[in-house]
């Protein structure tokens, strides 16, 4: 899937992904995975449905979906480079993801965010209704 808006493009074509650019952002600017090794990013991209955001051919954003395409999807690694923020790209990216044909009819979507609650709420996301049912095993220092 490839869609255009003005000079920007969103594509699920993995051959367009710029591993170096994605790794640069995730390992140095993404609070959720600072210092992530490049090989980990590469494997994550290979095993996810990826929505790349581009200006011309330059990678300026990303969102990864981890899913079984039937019941559940995890939305992660969502970003737009700082110099391109304020152009409605995050909202367009979410519209594109939420309307993607292979992701319709899922029972549950999940994500973790430290600062973008307002964006996701525009698309029906809410706080977890019953956090007492959720558990996690989180090694926040795994990349150090």
From TrEMBL:
InterPro entries: Acetyltransferase_Butenolide, Acyl_CoA_acyltransferase, GNAT_dom. Residues 8-140 form the N-acetyltransferase domain. SUPFAM superfamilies: Acyl-CoA N-acyltransferases (Nat) (SSF55729). Keywords: Transferase. One of its GO terms (molecular function) is acyltransferase activity, transferring groups other than amino-acyl groups. It comes from the Bacteria. PROSITE patterns: GNAT (PS51186). PANTHER family: FAMILY N-ACETYLTRANSFERASE, PUTATIVE (AFU_ORTHOLOGUE AFUA_6G03350)-RELATED. This is GNAT family acetyltransferase.
């Amino acid at each position: 899937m490839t869609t255009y808006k003005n000079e920007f493009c969103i594509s699920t074509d993995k051959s367009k992904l710029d591993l170096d650019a994605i790794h640069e952002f995730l390992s140095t600017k993404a609070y959720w995975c600072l210092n992530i090794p490049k090989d980990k990013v590469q494997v994550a991209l290979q095993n996810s449905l990826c929505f790349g955001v581009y200006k011309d051919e330059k990678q300026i954003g990303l969102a990864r979906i981890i899913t079984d395409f039937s019941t559940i999807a995890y939305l992660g690694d969502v970003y737009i480079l700082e110099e391109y923020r304020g152009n409605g790209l995050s909202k367009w990216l979410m519209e594109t993801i939420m309307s993607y044909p292979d992701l319709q009819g899922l029972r549950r979507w999940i994500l973790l965010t430290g600062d973008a609650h307002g964006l996701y709420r525009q698309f029906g996301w809410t706080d977890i209704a019953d956090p007492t049912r959720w558990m996690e095993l989180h090694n926040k220092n795994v990349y150090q």
